[in-house]
Amino acid sequence: MNLHRLLQARRDAGRPVRVGLIGAGKFGSMFLAQVPTSPGVVVTAIADLAPDRARAACAQVGWDDARIEATRFGDDAARMVAADDVEVVVEATGHAPAGIAHAQAAIAAGKHVVMVNVEADVLTGPLLARQAAQAGVVYSLAYGDQPALIAELVDWARACGFAVIAAGKGTKYLPEYHASTPATVWPYYGLTEAQARAGGMNPQMFNSFLDGTKSGIEMAAVANATGLIPPPDGLAFPPCGTHELAEKLRPGNAGALHHRGQVEVVSSLQRDGSAVANDLRWGVYVVFEAPGDYTARCFGEYGVPTDASGRVSALYRPFHLIGLELNISILSAALRGEATGAPTGFRGDVVATAKRDLRAGEILDGEGGACVWGKLMPAAASLAVGGLPIGLANRVKLLRDVPAGSAVTWADVRMDATDPAYRFRRQMEAAFPAAPA
Predict the structure, then answer these.
(1) Which helix (H) or strand (E) is 132 found in, with range?
(2) pLDDT tens-digit profile of 165-183?
(3) Are the C-beta atoms of residues 405 and 375 closer than 8 Å to each other?
(4) Which CATH number characterizes residue 421's domain?
(5) With the CA atoms of 368, 352, 119 and 146 taken in that order, what torsion angle do they form, in degrees rounded to the nearest 10?
(6) Which of 294, 329, 397, 418 is 20 to 30 A from 138 (CA-CA)?
(7) Cα 158 to the chain's mean position, in Å?
(8) What number of CA atoms fall less than 13 Å from residue 199's CA on the CB side?
(9) Are 366 and 413 contained in the same domain?
(10) Quick one: which H or E segment has residue 79?
(11) DSSP output for 169-224
(12) pTM of the predicted model, to two decimals?
């Protein structure tokens, strides 16, 4: 609340919020589309591996020539981050090692960081957030993406005095999706390869949305930001409509919820492939409980939907607007010095898990690829088995066979010990004792 008023004051004082964007892909382009109608927000620079493509993206989303000409375009993110006319850095590359390096550079330069790159956040976010706090700047999840929206719902419930039973999002899920590869992905979306190619769709990216990896990454980010703990055996993806959230997502319900205070993703498909009524495929939710009889009675008096006990209810948002909502994070950081969700501990991790029997000598192909998918685990469980984070499971060689369904471990692969992202991840593991599962 009041962000628009605060922004108007900055604009009227001749001090617009100055943003530097790294990565002008889909998320970045959606943010850029809102800039012309956000007086007081100025994108001073855009860094992208293809600057001409970034310039074309600005024109495509509606920027006029004057705005484009007033913006610096380049491929040197470090140089952009260091510029005096950038106060908030938006990292939207989707590449975990690059995201870590960009965030570290921004924090060192005294700039706020909005981390669209949730892959980087899950890999090392707790340590990045700590370093940002020590530097007196904000490190934030990206509003519009589901983790920040879920964190907001959890914060709302707790601030109101409700105990949070579960929180998460919806997605399209069937167990067979875990084995999907870029070569098999399009029929699951009802598309032909030619249609997907015509739409400029990246099969590996879309496969990561389908095979469970993206859900695991997003729920790990929520766990690390809210204190909710992942289920011990990974996400269950229970089929569940919005009308069933309060009744179904209760501890002890087989196949639905393992414990109170959990992250979980609900499926828009029944296990037979039929559609769930009132599905939450694009949305987010929180399930919460009345603290006493009086509050429960108030639920009934004001028409609040509840479970059979009358004590448990759910609040949900049916959709999220991705980069179109990113201003909320940018303005919260610049005008309030607050994050729209940020990791406070190491509670959830996403471990590379074999899609098929893998053989020694194979080269892993990362998130959304043909070799592994990312399974959400409690961080303590991941550390106990030495799980290989999905964010570092790209272009690494297997040293031994890994059976289908098994976690890939550090001992199973040859890592480059000099790689900065690998070293920072190991530093994060040492700095943050994992919360108990």
Answers:
(1) helix 118-135
(2) 999 999 999 999 999 999 9
(3) no
(4) 3.90.1210.10
(5) 80
(6) 418
(7) 21
(8) 13
(9) yes
(10) helix 77-82
(11) EEE---GGGGG--TTTHHHHTT--HHHHHHTT--HHHHHHHHSSHHHHHHHHHHHH
(12) 0.96
